[in-house]
C-alpha cells in the first residue's frame, strides 16, 4: 500500500496544506513561502501524472521505450520551475520595496484614488483607529481593511 | 500550400509584439514608444481582420511549431473564433494604450515594453492549441501585468499589487495542477486530441473541470470573483482598461474553447459533419453543466447587485465587469450555437463599452483628481462631450439603444428562450435564465442611474484636487475648481472612438454577425479543428 504513488499523493497533500496555511498569514514573506510550497506540490503532481513509479531516464540510446519514463511531465515541471522562480523573485522584490510589510494597515479609499509616487509619502499618515490593527490580529485586519476601502 | 504558409505566419502574432517590446527597451525614445504602443495593436487588429476574412474559405489554420507530427507538435491554431478574439483584444489594447500615452503613463519606466509583452502573451494564449502552452502564455501575460501594476501604482497601492500577484499565482498553480491531471487521465494536453474526451470519461471530465476552475478565477466568476473588484479599481484607469480587455477576456475565451472542445456538449444542437460522436453524457458531465449554469446565474445577478454598493466610478465598473462575465458565459451554460453566438457578441460589446467607460473615467480622475462618486457632481454642465460618452456607455451597459448593448442583451434573451437551442437542457433553464437577465438588467440600471446622478448630474462641481505644479504626478489639497478647468480632448479621444465603435456595432451588427455565427458553429463542429491540428492521422 505504501508504494511511491501513495507517498507522492501524501506529499502533494501535505505541501498544499502547508502552503495554504502560510498564505493565510499577513506578511508577504510567509505568503511567498506558501506559494513556493504550493508550486512544489504542483510540480510533484505533474510528475506523478506521467510516472506512477520509478522508471529509467528517457534517453534515446540508454533505455528502451518500455523502460523509459515519460519525458513530457518532466518537461512540464522544468518549465513550471522556471516560471515559479521568476515569480518568486518578483514577489521577493515586492516584499522588500515599500515602507513596511503591509502588516499594519490596509489601503483606504484615498490611497487608491490619488496618484502619489513620492517614495517619502506617508502610507500611514492618518491611520483610522478603526482600521488600525494589532500585529497578532492579522486575519481580521485583512477583512476589516478591505471593507475600509469602501466605507472610509 | 498557401494555407500552410499563412499558418506558419501565426507565431508572428506572438513574435512581433515581443520583438518590438525589446526594441522599445533598447532604444528608449519617447516618440518611438508612443508609435509602437499604438501601432502594434493596430497591426494585430488589421492582421486579425484579414485572418477573419481568410477563415471564410479555410475554417481552421494550424501550424505545428518545428514541423513535428500532429499530436506531438505544440500547435498554433486559428479559427474564426480566435481571429475575432484577436481583433477584439487588439482594438481594446490600442484604445487603452492610446489612453496611456495621453495620460502620460507611457513615460513611466518600461510601460510601453510591458504593454507589448502583455499583448504578446495574450495573442499566444488565444492561438495556442495546447493546454500546457496555454499555462505558459498565461504566465507570459501575468509577469508584465505584475510589473505594470507596480510601475503605475503608488507605494500605497503595493498592497493591491500584492493581492493581485498572490491571487494569480495561486490560480496559476491550480491551472498547472489541472493540466497535470488532464495529462494523467487523458495522456495528452493537446486540445484537438482531447476533443470529446471529457464527455466520454468522467476522470478526464474532472481534470478538465480543475482547469476550468482556474480559468473561472481569472475571469472573475462569482464564487471566486472577490479579488477583482478590489484589485482592478486600485490600479490606474489606463491599466484597468488594458487588464479588463485582456485578462478576463482571455480566460473567457479559454473557458469557451476548452469546455466545448473537451466536453462536446449540446449533442442535440450538434450539426451535420461533426466527427465527434456525442454519447449520452455521463453523470459528471451533467453535473458540471448544472454547476456552470448555477454559477453563471449567480455571476450575472450578484455582479449587477454588487455594483449598487460601490462608491467609486471604477468600482462600479469592476462589478459591471463581473456581471458581464456572467452574461458572456450564458453561451457556455445554454450550450447552443445561438447562445454561444450571443455570448460572443456580448463579449465584443462588453470589451468595447468597458474600454470607453474606463478610459473616460480615467480622464475624469486625471482632470479632477478623484473618482469617488461623492466628490464628483454636475460634470454634465462642464464637460458635454464626456457626458455624452458616459451616457452612451451606460446605456450600452444597460442594454439600450443606440448602442451595441441592445443587440447583445436581446440576442442573449432570445437564445435563452429559443426552444430549438440546447435540446438537452433542463426545462427550468429558460425561465430562470430569463429572470436572471431581467433582474441583472434592473439592478444594473439602478446602479448606473446612481452613478450618473452622483457624477454627471446634480449640483455643479465645486472642489477638485489639481496636479501639483512641481512636475510630479502628485495631487495637492482640495481647492475650488476654476471655471476654465475642463477634461482635455486628448484624454477623452480614446473613449469617444470606442463608444463610436459601440454605436457602429449597433448599426452594422448584421455585418459582424456572420463571423460570430461561424465562430460559434466552429465550437460545435470540432471536426475541422481536430483534422487541421492532428492531420487526420492520429486518433
Automatic annotation (TrEMBL), chain A:
Residues 102-152 are annotated as: Disordered. It is found in: Cell membrane. It holds the Pfam family Oxidored_q2. Signal peptide: none annotated. The keyword Transmembrane applies. Its main location: membrane. It is a multi-pass membrane protein. The keyword Hydrolase does not apply. Keywords: Cell membrane, Membrane, Transmembrane, Transmembrane helix. InterPro entries: CPA3_antiporter_subunitC, NUOK/Mnh_C1-like. The chain crosses the membrane at residues 6-24, 31-54, 74-97. Belongs to the CPA3 antiporters (TC 2.A.63) subunit C family. This is Cation:proton antiporter. The lineage of its organism: Bacteria, Bacillati, Actinomycetota, Actinomycetes, Micrococcales.
Automatic annotation (TrEMBL), chain B:
InterPro entries: CPA3_Na-H_Antiporter_D, NADH_UbQ_OxRdtase, ND/Mrp_TM. It is a multi-pass membrane protein. Keywords: Cell membrane, Membrane, Transmembrane, Transmembrane helix. Belongs to the CPA3 antiporters (TC 2.A.63) subunit D family. This is Cation:proton antiporter. Coiled coil: none annotated. It holds the Pfam family Proton_antipo_M. It is found in: Cell membrane; Membrane. It comes from the Bacteria. The chain crosses the membrane at residues 6-27, 34-53, 73-101, 108-126, 132-151, 163-184, 204-227, 280-305, 317-338, 344-364, 385-408, 428-448, 491-516. Residues 129-412 form the NADH:quinone oxidoreductase/Mrp antiporter transmembrane domain. It comes from Citricoccus zhacaiensis.
Amino acid at each position: 500500500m505504501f508504494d511511491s504513488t501513495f507517498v507522492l499523493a501524501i506529499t502533494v497533500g501535505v505541501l498544499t496544506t502547508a502552503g495554504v496555511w502560510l498564505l493565510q498569514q499577513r506578511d508577504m514573506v510567509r505568503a511567498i513561502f506558501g506559494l513556493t510550497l504550493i508550486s512544489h506540490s504542483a510540480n510533484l503532481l505533474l510528475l506523478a501524472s506521467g510516472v506512477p513509479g520509478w522508471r529509467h531516464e528517457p534517453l534515446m540510446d540508454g533505455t528502451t521505450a518500455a523502460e523509459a519514463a515519460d519525458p513530457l511531465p518532466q518537461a512540464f515541471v522544468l518549465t513550471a520551475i522556471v516560471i515559479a522562480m521568476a515569480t518568486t523573485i518578483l514577489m521577493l522584490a515586492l516584499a522588500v520595496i515599500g515602507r513596511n510589510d503591509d502588516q499594519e494597515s490596509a489601503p483606504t479609499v484615498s490611497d487608491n484614488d490619488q496618484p502619489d509616487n513620492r517614495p517619502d509619502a506617508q502610507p500611514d499618515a492618518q491611520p483610522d483607529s478603526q482600521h488600525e490593527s494589532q500585529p497578532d490580529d492579522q486575519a481580521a485586519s485583512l477583512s476589516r481593511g478591505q471593507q475600509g476601502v469602501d466605507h472610509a | 500550400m498557401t494555407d500552410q504558409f499563412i499558418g506558419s505566419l501565426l507565431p508572428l502574432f506572438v513574435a512581433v509584439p515581443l520583438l518590438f517590446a525589446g526594441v522599445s527597451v533598447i532604444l528608449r525614445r519617447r516618440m518611438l514608444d508612443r508609435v509602437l504602443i499604438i501601432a502594434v495593436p493596430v497591426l494585430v487588429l488589421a492582421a486579425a481582420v484579414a485572418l477573419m476574412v481568410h477563415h471564410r474559405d479555410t475554417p481552421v489554420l494550424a501550424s505545428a511549431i518545428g514541423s513535428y507530427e500532429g499530436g506531438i507538435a505544440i500547435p498554433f491554431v486559428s479559427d474564426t473564433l480566435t481571429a475575432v478574439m484577436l481583433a477584439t483584444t487588439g482594438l481594446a489594447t490600442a484604445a487603452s494604450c492610446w489612453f496611456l500615452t495621453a495620460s502620460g503613463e507611457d513615460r513611466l519606466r518600461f510601460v510601453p515594453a510591458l504593454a507589448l509583452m502583455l499583448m504578446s502573451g495574450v495573442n499566444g494564449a488565444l492561438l495556442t492549441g495546447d493546454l500546457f502552452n496555454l499555462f505558459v502564455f498565461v504566465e507570459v501575460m501575468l509577469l508584465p501585468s505584475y510589473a505594470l501594476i507596480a510601475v503605475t501604482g503608488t507605494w500605497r497601492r503595493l498592497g493591491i499589487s500584492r493581492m493581485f500577484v498572490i491571487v494569480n499565482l495561486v490560480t496559476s498553480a491550480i491551472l498547472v495542477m489541472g493540466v497535470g491531471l488532464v495529462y494523467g487521465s487523458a495522456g495528452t494536453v493537446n486540445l484537438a486530441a482531447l476533443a470529446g474526451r471529457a464527455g466520454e470519461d468522467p476522470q478526464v471530465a474532472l481534470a478538465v473541470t480543475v482547469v476550468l476552475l482556474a480559468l473561472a478565477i481569472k475571469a472573475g466568476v462569482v464564487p471566486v470573483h472577490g479579488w477583482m473588484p478590489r484589485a482592478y479599481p486600485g490600479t490606474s484607469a489606463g491599466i484597468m482598461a488594458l487588464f479588463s480587455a485582456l485578462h478576463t477576456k482571455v480566460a473567457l475565451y479559454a473557458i469557451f474553447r476548452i469546455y466545448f472542445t473537451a466536453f462536446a456538449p449540446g449533442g442535440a444542437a450538434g450539426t451535420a459533419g461533426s466527427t465527434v460522436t456525442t454519447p449520452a453524457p455521463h453523470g459528471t458531465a451533467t453535473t458540471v453543466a448544472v454547476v456552470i449554469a448555477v454559477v453563471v446565474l449567480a455571476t450575472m445577478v450578484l455582479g449587477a447587485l454588487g455594483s449598487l454598493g460601490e462608491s467609486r466610478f471604477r468600482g462600479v465598473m469592476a462589478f459591471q465587469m463581473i456581471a458581464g462575465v456572467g452574461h458572456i458565459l450564458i453561451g457556455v451554460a445554454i450550450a447552443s450555437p445561438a447562445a454561444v453566438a450571443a455570448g460572443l457578441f456580448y463579449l465584443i460589446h462588453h470589451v468595447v463599452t468597458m474600454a470607453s467607460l474606463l478610459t473616460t473615467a480615467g480622464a475624469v480622475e486625471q482632470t479632477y483628481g478623484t473618482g469617488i462618486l461623492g466628490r464628483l457632481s454636475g460634470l454634465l454642465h462642464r464637460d458635454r462631450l464626456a457626458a455624452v460618452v458616459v451616457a452612451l456607455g451606460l446605456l450600452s451597459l444597460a442594454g439600450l439603444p443606440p448602442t451595441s448593448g441592445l443587440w447583445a442583451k436581446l440576442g442573449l434573451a432570445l437564445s435563452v428562450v429559443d426552444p430549438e437551442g440546447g435540446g438537452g437542457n433542463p426545462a427550468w433553464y429558460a425561465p430562470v435564465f430569463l429572470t436572471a437577465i431581467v433582474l441583472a438588467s434592473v439592478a444594473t440600471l439602478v446602479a448606473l442611474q446612481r452613478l450618473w446622478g452622483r457624477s454627471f448630474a446634480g449640483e455643479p462641481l465645486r472642489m477638485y484636487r489639481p496636479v501639483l505644479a512641481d512636475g510630479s504626478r502628485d495631487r495637492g489639497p482640495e481647492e475650488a475648481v476654476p471655471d476654465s478647468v475642463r477634461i482635455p480632448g486628448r484624454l477623452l479621444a480614446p473613449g469617444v472612438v470606442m463608444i463610436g465603435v459601440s454605436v457602429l456595432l449597433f448599426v452594422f451588427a448584421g455585418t459582424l454577425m456572420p463571423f460570430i455565427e461561424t465562430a460559434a458553429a466552429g465550437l460545435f463542429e470540432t471536426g475541422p479543428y481536430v483534422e487541421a491540428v492532428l492531420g487526420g492521422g492520429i486518433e
